[in-house]
Amino acid sequence: ENAVHNIYKYLSMNNLRIDILINNAGFGDLGYFHESDTNIIKNMIKVNIVALTELTRILLPSTPIIFNINS
Description:
Distance between the termini: 23 Å
Number of helices: 2
Strand content: 5-15%
Shape: elongated
Radius of gyration: 15 Å
Structural class: mainly alpha
Order of helices and strands: HEHE
Helix content: 40-55%
């Protein structure tokens, strides 16, 4: 969350804008879900969902094109 706000703050302070946002970050885990480490699951949610949502929400008013790529 702080990283997203730092990006927005940097852009604002330097009068910069993003013309195209491509959300392509993410990671997964292999194995049985019931054997997965809870911290890995929480980190996946943080990167794959929360970061994407926050970045898109903050930049949407000024970014005309947004691509979300996932697998």
